[in-house]
Amino acid sequence: DGGITQSPKYLFRKEGQNVTLSCEQNLNHDAMYWYRQDPGQGLRLIYYSQIVNDFQKGDIAEGYSVSREKKESFPLTVTSAQKNPTAFYLCASSIGSGTEAFFGQGTRLTVV
Amino acid sequence: AQSVTQPDIHITVSEGASLELRCNYSYGATPYLFWYVQSPGQGLQLLLKYFSGDTLVQGIKGFEAEFKRSQSSFNLRKPSVHWSDAAEYFCAGVYGGSQGNLIFGKGTKLSVKP
Predict the structure, then answer these.
(1) Could you say which of A17, A32, A65, B52 has the lowest number of CB atoms within 10 Å?
(2) Given a cut of 70, is residue A1 above it in pLDDT?
(3) Minimal Cα–Cα distance from A23 to chain B, Å?
(4) pLDDT tens across B2-44, in order?
(5) Among residues B97, B48, B54, B45, which one has the least CA distance to residue B75?
(6) CA-based nearest residue in chain A for residue B38
């Protein structure tokens, strides 16, 4: 089945540690996105990539980093510089910018 | 700045009643518009989309939405709500065509009374 796979579903991190969230898609989509979701805030764009080896900052990129070495993969690293990392993280992909996005099932990150 | 607004944070309807969820987009060039649904702890599922043409669009699960340029609105409707429709609903828009990214409203949580 084609789709977007995020792993792990739940992730716990100690303060001061970096952690990487995985996102893989087999839809052959060019564009991929990372969103952060907090209660009552909707979805906020962290980073996006329209093509392999290229990515741009979204609205809340501080404290996060990404890479796009392969078309199907777009991992997100939450660094120790992110002051409030506890949130639900959603990865999405689309054929290109300006089209509908398809979402993974999300990763819930908790800092302990 | 371009934006998408959902005026209602939480709506409760009785099972079998009709539903309308409101969405407004900021004035200016018409964006591409979408409605998504999210069950607790899950990702988002696309319900329907509007790019151009017919202003009434049909989606999955019996939902429809009507684009009204004069009101800058794209409201989601369903004639008869089922208990399984309880979820959070997000309206989203893309401005600038192929150069734009999705901008989301803050969501409307729908509760369904038996």
Answers:
(1) B52
(2) no
(3) 13
(4) 889 999 999 999 999 999 999 999 867 778 999 999 999 899 9
(5) B48
(6) A105
